[in-house]
Amino acid sequence: SIPSSDTMVSGGLVVGIILAWLLGFPLVKDHMVADSVDEEGIEHPILKHFIRRLTAMWIGVFSVMALIALVPAVINLQEGVVVSDTVEIVCVGLEFIALALGLLISH
Question: Consecutive 10-residue runs of the chain (107 residues): their mean pLDDT?
Fold first, then answer.
């Protein structure tokens, strides 16, 4: 069903962002270099701190999205219980709100 695939996608993004960060490739670094900062400027301590904070924020956003999408999936696991369309719509709406807040904060 769609909710469980949302959980896998958002959870996969979290794992991928964390692995890339641990390997030295923070999520927002390439975007910052491409748009406004050169390779030398990106090594400034303030920008390094900002990159860490933004990467951590996106990990948080995608984690929240994965947890929200997990709600209908867990309800579906209960024997004889079917998730209502309202629950699925509310969860998708909450995921969208989390993503929109992340976009607003990062820009």
Answer: 71 92 85 71 84 91 92 81 84 93 89
